[in-house]
Amino acid sequence: MLIAILLGFIFSLFLVITGKFFKGKFSILAAGVPLALFIYFTQFISRISNGEVITQFHSWIPAFGVNLGFTLDGLSLLFSLMITGIGFLVFVYTSAYLKGHKYLDRFYGYLSMFMAAMLGLVLSDNLISLFVFWELTSITSFFLIGFNNTSRESRKSALIALAITGIGGLSLLVGALFLGSITGTYSIAEMLTMNPEIASNPYYILIVLLIFGAAFTKSAQFPFHFWLPGAMKAPTPVSTYLHSATMVKAGIYLLMRLTPVLGDHEFWNTTLIIVGAVTMVYSAIHTLFRTDLKGVLAYSTISALGILVFLIGQGTVEALTAAAVFVIVHALYKATLFLVTGIIDHQTGTRDTTVLRGLRKVLLPVAIAGFLAALSSAGIPPTIGFIGKELTYESTFHFGNMAILLMGLIVITKILLLYAGFVAGIKPFTGVLPERFENTKMPSFLMWLPPVLLALGCIVFGIFPGLIEGSLVKPMVSSMGLDGKEIHLKLFHGFNIILLLSVITIAAGTVLYFMIEPTKKRENWVAKFEKISPQTVITNSWTNFIKFSNGWTNLFQNGYLRNYVSTIMIFLIALTGYSLFSKANFAVDFNSFSPITVYEAATSVVMLIAIGYTVFTRSRLAAVASMGIIGYAICILFVIYSAPDLAMTQFSIDTLTVILFVLVLYKLPKYLKLSDYKMRIRDGILSLAFGTIITLLILEVLAEPKSSEVSDYYAANAYILAHGKNVVNVILVDFRGSDTMIEISVLAIAAIGVFALLKLRLKKSDQR
Amino acid sequence: MEILLAIMIGVLYAAGIYMILRRSLVKLILGIIILGNGANLLIFLLGRVVKGSPPIIPADSDVFQSVYADPVPQALILTAIVISFGLQSFAIILVKRAYKVVKTDDLDEMNAIDKDS
């Protein structure tokens, strides 16, 4: 199973070298990867439907309990089949849709990496590895949404999607760490039995909120939904794959997977029902105002995700069965509608519902696919959509005392979704074909076959629900911790109130479809409310945050060396000064100091004059010369205080520096008076304050006793171990010989740098 | 004497910082050199100073017989002097090169990356 998951990553690496091959005529071969995986996963269907759970374990970081554990049960099997099956169709479709595209190989690389990450996500048993794959899907989807990287809008959408889902990912990580520390394991399978302990933990609410943070951002729940319509900037295969069938379902998957661990708690259920209900109604209403086909589909997808969250929130066997069926239903019809939209866009060059008409005359197979998908989305028999809708109504109808209100909400949503499905799947194909579309050509069969296949699925599974009942739906419900034995999927449930509601939904939706034409006017009208939408609020607060951090950074990182130095100095003076004056006692014992002799006094005076001259002279040469005098004065101090080696080194180095300076200097212009009086005063005060702090610090340190363990060791062993009498030399070349060695290499590097700079010949263009 | 040395170090630090705060590149390098000298003296003084007894073991014995100057700070400073020479020589040549390319010695004017700004 590990190989199956990694195959996508391996293939994308392989594409780096063989990109040219897959870019050209043979691009269809790339679809072999998802096809092979799909076949691989289908062979597990019979074993899983017998109640088997297939697990695999690879140790990764056992010290932290982070392992690559994989579980294939009903839930992950369904998602794996969707990921690879729809993935296969999308790969095939892409080979025609992006035929001859400059970066087709890159696209396949991203797509297969995404597929692998998605497989890893749904198969992971370990919460931490699940998080890793979760983040990988966010990152790969960033590249896919921003695939048209020359478009500003596209880049922006990709960034927003990454930011929103990325924040969710962090939330998931924190939630996983909490769960891990409570249960002592990161394995979901091991957590299954610990539901009561987790639910009674004081952090339960926090954990649930963190997990919700992840699921709601990924599955575009209100108020985080806005990244999804933005992500429609991606090429249509991406929208199909990521934003209808797979990635946005990752949040749904997470909720389903953790239902037995965290569910069956009032907070869990109520929050999910409220958020799901708000999302499904809010975005279903939004579909009324869209004229871009992909916009309609985006909002209806959000609404469908809302329905799923709403159903998971109910948490009953009926509701979870409905959710399981609806995942399949939605994947089939929404992928079809996206692919159909892609074909329309590809062949006619527009996705505007206000102008698209009568395309059935030129794109017949596509029209059939769109029609069937629209029926399924509307829940009209005999499609599988009908079964999904019936189950949804039934479970909501049986849901306690709030049933009437919830029922009202779900019926309204379904009516609006029927409208959306018709607008996307039927409207472009009915009516009179306008002149401008008369020459529309049929696309290659590689493009129209995938949606037709998916649309057939909507019908076939609707007429023969037994095909998915035992093989997929039952094992899926039981892997959510509930008994799925009683589940029977069928088209006709007898005459009852549910059927009546279905009829009302279909009738009302159809009436709505014929009454309301999508118009630009309404779209513009709703655009007025953009100002108070969650998207505007969040993007504004984040633009302001960026402005703030820009200002803050510019305040301190302004590119002027002296400002950095002053800031550092001010803080250093304040902090050291504070602790010096608050803690130190200034018990300076002047008697312990040696008396000042005339040599020292004279040297100090010379040094003082030289320092003053270096600082204040207007002549550069004089400054360098007096700097040399400072060096010599220090040299004399070294002689007085028993450091002959230092004196020699200081003398030679100081001389060399001065010579080098003078050699360079005669080429430079004169000193300019660059700073004004005020700045000099300010800098002078700052420097003097710093100098004073240093002096006080020295006096304070000198009052403390000194430890001389290290020096004593060297002094005692210099001759005995290293046979040298000059202890300083012995330390440098023997005890710390390798340090000196490295020091020499540093000097060598500096020498190379100097040589290179001297020899460097500038091109004419580099000179000013 | 220690008190005098402590004051001298303070003066060296102040002068170094003041030079670093100037806009001229040459002054910047001079400032770094002065600051380096101050740091060397600081290490030297904190290792305690002794007159007339260098850390050299007398010819007629294997170990020190009397008080001796601390060799560790001396070894450290020796390294520091040599390394700072590497830094200084590179910086000086760099200033020369930079001046040749951008024709200015003013740090503020070197801030912009583009030629025409």
UniProtKB/TrEMBL annotation, chain A:
- Chain ranges of the NADH-Ubiquinone oxidoreductase (complex I) chain 5 N-terminal domain: 61-108
Instruction: Kindly indicate whether the keyword RNA-binding belongs to this entry.
Output: no
The MrpA C-terminal/MbhD domain covers which part of the protein? 605-670
Topology term for the membrane: Multi-pass membrane protein
Name the source's superkingdom: Bacteria
Task: State the UniProt keywords alphabetically.
Answer: Antiport, Cell membrane, Ion transport, Membrane, Transmembrane, Transmembrane helix, Transport
Instruction: Name the Gene Ontology molecular function terms of this record.
Output: antiporter activity
- InterPro entries registered for this protein in UniProt: CPA3_Na-H_Antiporter_A, MrpA_C/MbhD, MrpA_C/MbhE, ND/Mrp_TM, Proton_antipo_N
Subcellular location(s): the record lists: Cell membrane; Membrane
The protein in question is named Multisubunit sodium/proton antiporter MrpA subunit
Q: Which GO terms describe its cellular component?
A: plasma membrane
Enumerate the PANTHER family for this protein.
NA(+)/H(+) ANTIPORTER SUBUNIT (PTHR43373), NA(+)_H(+) ANTIPORTER SUBUNIT A (PTHR43373:SF1)
What is one Pfam family matched by this protein?
MbhD
Q: Where is the MrpA C-terminal/MbhE domain?
A: 680-759
The UniProt transmembrane annotation reads 28-46, 78-98, 107-124, 130-147, 159-183, 203-228, 268-289, 296-313, 319-341, 362-384, 404-424, 445-468, 495-516, 564-581, 593-616, 621-641, 647-665, 685-703, 740-758
Q: Which residues form the NADH:quinone oxidoreductase/Mrp antiporter transmembrane domain?
A: 124-410
| GO biological process terms held by the UniProt record | monoatomic ion transport
Automatic annotation (TrEMBL), chain B:
List the InterPro entries: CPA3_antiporter_subunitC (IPR050601), NUOK/Mnh_C1-like (IPR039428)
Give the protein's recorded name. Multisubunit sodium/proton antiporter MrpC subunit
Q: What is its main location?
A: membrane
Species of the source:
Gillisia mitskevichiae
* One Gene Ontology cellular component: plasma membrane
User: Which regions span the lipid bilayer?
Assistant: 6-21, 28-46, 75-95
One Pfam family linked to the record: Oxidored_q2
| NCBIfam families to which the protein is assigned, alphabetical | PRK09094.1, PRK12659.1
